[in-house]
Structures are given as C-alpha cells and as structure tokens.
Design a protein that fits this description.
The structure is a single chain. With 366 residues, the protein is an alpha+beta fold. It folds into two domains: 289 residues, no CATH class; 33 residues, no CATH class. The protein contains eleven helices and 13 strands. Strands 1, 4, 8, 9 and 12 form a five-stranded mixed β-sheet that branches. Strands 6-5-7-13 form a four-stranded mixed β-sheet, with helices on both faces. The longest helix is centred in the middle third of the chain and has 21 residues. It is globular and about 75 Å long.
Length: 366
C-alpha cells in the first residue's frame, strides 16, 4: 500500500471526511483587497443586495474582503487592537499595492515611515537634527561631566488631505466577470499619476494638497564630463546620493525617473552597484531624475471610502470649477446611459522631515 493510500485509510478509520491532502492555493495578487472591495460595492448597488453577499458569491475563499464589507454589530475603531485596527492597516497597504504599477509615490510610501490619522486633525512628526548641533549625546570618561547639547531640530506636520475621483463604468462592465480587473485598471489610471504629479512638483501646500517634494530644492548640475554614459550615470547618482546622505542613514535611498530613464538606470547597473537603493518609474517625471532618502519622508494613508450612484448627472471634467453652480460641461446622465458613478476617496498626506532628504537633477549625459 502506498503512503497516499495509507493516509486515506487512516482518515477513513478516524471518521474524517477531509481529503488526505489539502488543495494548493496560490497567494492573491497585490491590490486584490481594494479592487474587490470597490467591485463588491458596485455589483451590490446594481443587484440591490449587500456587498457582503456579493463577496460571498464571487470570492467565497477571500475572507479578508468578506470581513471588510460586512456590517459591523459594534462600531469599529482603527485604533483598537483586535477590532478593525489590523484590517485597516491591511486595506491601506493593499491600496498602495494596487497603485504600485502606476505610481512611484505609492511604492515610496511603502518604504518610508508610515502613520495613520485616526481621528486626529493633524500629526506632528519629529524632524531630523540639523548639522553637528544635532548631537544629543557623547562618550564620557568616568567621573567627567556629561555635556549638554541644544539640538537644532526641524519639524513636520501632516495635515489631512484626500485623493478623490469619480470613475464611470457601464452596467455591462460591472456585471461582467472581468469587473475586478477593469476596476483595478480604473483605480490605477485615476489615482496613480495624480498622486505622483503632486508629490514630485514644486508647489507649496494649500487647503487642497500637501507640498511637493521639490519645493525650495534646487536642481543639482548634471555631469557631462564623463567619457561615456556609464561614467556620467555614476557621477549623477553619486552626487544625488551625497546630497541626501546626511539624513539617509541606513534606510533605503529611492530614485525616481521616467519609465524609460528608470529602465536605463537599471540597465546601467544600478541594481548591482547600489544594494541599498530602489529605482522606480513614474509617468509624472519626464526628463529629471529624483532622489529621496526614505527616512526623511513620512506619509499617512487612510482607509478608502466608496460610494456608488446611478441617478446623478455628472459634469465630465477632470478639472471642475470651484463653483459647482456654474459647471461648464459636458454632461452625462448616468441613468440615461445605464452607467454608474463610483466615487472613491483615499485620505493621504506626506511631508519631508528634512529638506536635505530630497535631491534632483536633469541628466544629459546618459
């Protein structure tokens, strides 16, 4: 009798009905929880049922999304261990996973220190000490006085902002078996580039958005004196790394460029020459090459919120006027076109703890 047969007989004698060998289950792809969370709400709105019923019918083995969409018998608090705190962190990380293919910022936030807002209106983040006056201790001999240091400390404040958008999908799209993949693609198109465009610009903070990382940071002169592209590449990367070195520590240094320049950097050997570095591509970066010390950037991402509607008339404008009473159009009736508006809101914010944690250049020699 084979080992498999003996296992089956042993189970039969014990009165167990489970198979001798459990079936293999592959891990779900990144971004699964958020896309299924939104898809469940959209399908439930059409079928006039609850998102939890949709989750049970479409993804019976995915207990994470079933738990996320079910109605709670007691209020859930993201700060309470054992009830919603772990789930909140999971869906937040999953939100970044789903944006990863379209957003270098989402990938950067997964490396940099991350916080959560909860019910706070703002988060005060201790900055990084500046210069040699930032020392807070020293080696001291026996019976010798301990020196007193007055560190010059910068500070950063995270204010709550939201990244929001309305995605329009037809009934056929939502009811199809490919709804999850289509909605995942809509999320990436709607949120991925929007996040990067604000993160890497030079605009100051406003009531609508955080400050871009380039604010107040001048470009480093690109190297053009090398004998070839490799030499110029090494010089540019070295200058950027040196610029952020005072606050980088042993945390990863992240480089961001256009998709083409990021690939060129990898081909030139960045992955081999810099073991503690990451390089990401972004559609929001054209000719420049950016460098971020992950220890100097802090972010806060909240749990996404989803609403679905079909009776509204939408103004199809990706830059709507501040006054909603005088929309310029064009307009679209969701009811008449048998379409649905899926509004997704993601609380998100970031801040540089020290301006020396960011540097950039415009390469011309590689």
């Amino acid at each position: 009798m084979s080992v498999m047969d003996s296992n089956a007989v042993s189970l039969h004698q014990k009165g167990e009905t489970r198979p001798a060998f459990a079936p293999r289950r592959d891990p779900l792809p990144p971004g699964n929880l958020l896309s299924r969370f939104i898809t469940a709400h959209a399908k439930a709105f059409i079928a006039r049922t609850s998102p939890v019923e949709v989750a049970r019918d479409w993804w019976p083995d995915d207990h994470g999304v079933a738990t996320l969409v079910r109605a709670a018998s007691t209020p859930a608090q993201l700060g309470q261990v054992g009830w919603a705190q772990e789930l909140g962190h999971r869906v937040v990380n999953d939100s970044l996973d789903v944006l990863f293919p379209a957003s270098a910022g989402a990938a950067l936030f997964q490396i940099a220190p991350s916080l959560t807002f909860g019910n706070e209106a703002a988060i005060a983040v201790p900055g990084l000490a500046v210069g040699t006056t930032g020392k807070t201790s020293a080696f001291v001999a026996e019976r010798q006085p301990i020196p007193v240091f007055q560190p010059a400390v910068t500070s950063a404040t995270l204010l709550p902002y939201k990244l929001a958008g309305i995605m329009v999908a037809t009934r056929e799209m939502i009811e199809s078996s490919n709804a999850e993949n289509l909605i995942r693609d809509l999320i990436r198109q709607s949120f991925g580039r929007a996040l990067d465009e604000v993160l890497v610009d030079a605009n100051p903070a406003s009531p609508q958005r955080p400050a871009g990382m380039r604010l107040g940071v001048s470009a480093i002169t690109a190297s053009t004196t090398g004998a070839d592209a490799w030499s110029n590449f090494v010089a540019d990367v070295g200058h950027l790394a040196d610029a952020v070195a005072p606050v980088a520590g042993n945390a990863p240094i992240v480089f961001i460029g256009s998709s083409g320049r990021a690939m060129r950097a990898q081909i030139l050997g960045m992955d081999e020459t810099l073991k503690n570095a990451e390089v990401f591509g972004s559609n929001a970066v054209i000719n420049d090459f950016l460098c971020v010390a992950s220890a100097a950037l802090v972010s806060a991402v909240g749990v996404p919120e989803v609403e679905v509607n079909k009776v509204a008339t939408l103004t199809l404008d990706d830059a709507p006027a501040a006054d909603p009473t005088t929309p310029a159009g064009p307009f679209r009736s969701l009811w008449q076109t048998d379409s649905y508006g899926i509004k997704c809101r993601v609380p998100i914010s970031w801040a540089l703890r020290d301006p020396r944690g960011f540097a950039w250049t415009t390469p011309t020699g590689w």
